[in-house]
Every structure is written in structure tokens, then in C-alpha cells.
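Title: Prediction job returns without error message
Component: structure pipeline
Severity: low
Priority: P3
Assignee: unassigned

Description:
Job completed but the reporter wants confirmation the result is attached to the right record. Sequence as submitted:
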Amino acid sequence: MVEALVYIHEKNIFHNDAKGDNVLIARNGDLKTPILIDFGRACRISEAKRKVLSKDEQAKYRQKHSHIDPEVVDGTQLPRVKSDVDSAGVVFSNVYKPNKIKLVKEIARKCLQEHKKRCNTSELKAMLGNFRKL
């Protein structure tokens, strides 16, 4: 999933809907490979649009779309690469819950920080390189 995000971000595109439902696991023998799907909300970074929602609409949107960057929902940030990283953090957080792998928790934490402190996809990919060494 992260490699797919890195690839599209290098092409100045963001997914805009990275979530567990949009990650399939392909199996080839013992090898399991996550595949990012559903690019229906993807767009060029330069074409991102700011959402303007009332407080009521924000609350409803967060309930229905908990994987969307909170700073995008509240209108303080345009959807960007780091918005996809936040969404990936939600996926990693959900992976951590049943597995309790500390590195996955740390990766989720770095992805879910406020926008200014949040890692980018290249940093995320480097952290995952550490995971593969385990």
C-alpha cells in the first residue's frame, strides 16, 4: 500500500480514499502482497479542493469517513500527500490492534500526527523497511 502511495505521490497524484476497504491482499504461495485499489477519488495534487463544512456536517462526515484527515474535514488543510499518510495511519492503527506489533503502532503514531509533524510517504516507506528486517 505504501509503495503504491509513494508511486502516485511521485506522479503528483494523491489517492484521497486510502482505507482498509481499499486494500486487497494478493496471495502467491506464502507471499502476501497488499494492493491499493479504488482510485475513484484520486486527483492531481494541484486540483485539490478545500471542503467547507459546518460543524454539524464535519461531525457527520467524521463518523462516516473516519479515515479522512481531520484537518481536511475541518477545512484547515487542502487534501495533500500527507492526507494520504494520515489515512494510511488509520490502516496501520487497525492492523496494530489485533497484532500488537510495536513498530506498527509507532508507524501509525507518526502517520496520525498533526499535519506539520506528520511524516511523508518516503519517510513512511523507510520506516517500513525496518519492519521488513524483523
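Comment from assignee: result matches the submitted record. Residues 81-99 form the longest helix (19 residues).
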